[in-house]
Amino acid sequence: MRQAIEAQNDRARAANHPEVNGEALLAMAEELLPRLKAAAWRDRAEAAAGTVDEISLRDLRSVVAGADTATRDDESRLLASTLREALERRVAALREQWVEEITRALDDGRLVRALRVSAHPPEPTARFPAELAVRMSHAAGEAMAPDTSTERWTTLLGAVAESPVRRMVKPQGLPRDPADSVVEAARQASGRVPALATLLGIEMPPPPGPPRPHPPRSPRTAVDPDRRAG
Predict the structure, then answer these.
(1) Which of 60, 138, 135, 56 shows the shortest CA–CA distance to 102?
(2) Rounded distance between C-alpha atoms, residue 123 and residue 47, angstroms
(3) What is the pTM for the complete model shown?
(4) Which residues lie closer than 8 Å to 41 by C-beta, 6 or more apart?
(5) Which of 60, 73, 78, 223 has most Cβ atoms within 10 angstroms of its Cβ?
(6) How far is 165 from 121, CA to CA, in rounded Å?
(7) Tens-place pLDDT, residues 171-226
(8) Using CA atoms, how far apart are residues 195 and 198, in angstroms rounded to an integer?
(9) What are the pLDDT tens digits along the chain (230 aa)?
């Protein structure tokens, strides 16, 4: 607005015409801006309410977050409350499905699958259940044993290193006669899986920075890593 007023006044001065009163226009714009923002939010919110079960969580969360500064009347506040409840309901359902999928994979003996699913929570703030964490970390520690094949062991290592239980897993040992590549992989992962440092007899390195965000996972995988890795 300021730039437009300045440009218009530049043209007016060049043509020896009267300049516009910029301060009055800016005051009017500042008075209208909150109403315009509220109206724009109301349009988005009503559209979201009409597709509350189909709209992406990201878009729904964005609309809910915008309600704090855009709700100016009782109807808008009620609409915001409805959308917030819908968001909480959908997030809770996804979290429940996530935990159920991990539990089912563990029950079926698909440990790698359970570890990999655990690394992809439905939202960044999702907390991993303590009892499930103990169960999965114990299973992973037992599976990473000297009598485990090298392929299986390294597959488990990769899955453990990305999982939320990585700091709880205590491998029973390296594969028998491990190749240098396996030892090096374990050494590199010791910052994420502290028990590996003790296993290797090395000083534990500092943990790495936060991992890159994972792309949305597919509900199905073409190859079962537990069966492929033995």
Answers:
(1) 135
(2) 23
(3) 0.67
(4) 63, 66, 67, 70, 71, 76
(5) 60
(6) 13
(7) 999 999 989 999 999 999 999 999 999 999 887 666 655 555 554 444 444 446 66
(8) 5
(9) 567 667 766 776 677 777 666 666 556 656 655 567 777 888 888 888 888 888 888 888 888 888 877 666 788 888 889 999 999 999 999 999 999 999 999 999 999 999 999 999 988 888 999 999 999 999 999 999 999 999 999 999 999 999 999 999 999 999 999 899 999 999 999 999 999 999 998 876 666 555 555 544 444 444 466 655 54
Q: Tokens 């037992």 label which residue?
A: 142
Contact by Cβ (8 Å): 38, 76: yes
Helix axes 180-189, 150-162, angle to 10 degrees: 10
From 171, 156, 173, 175, select the one nearest 226 (Cα to Cα). 156
CA distances in angstroms from 191 to 50, 118, 138, 170, listed in the order given: 47, 19, 19, 13
Nearest Cα residue to 105 out of 136, 146, 66, 145: 136
Distance CA 67, CA 65 (A): 5
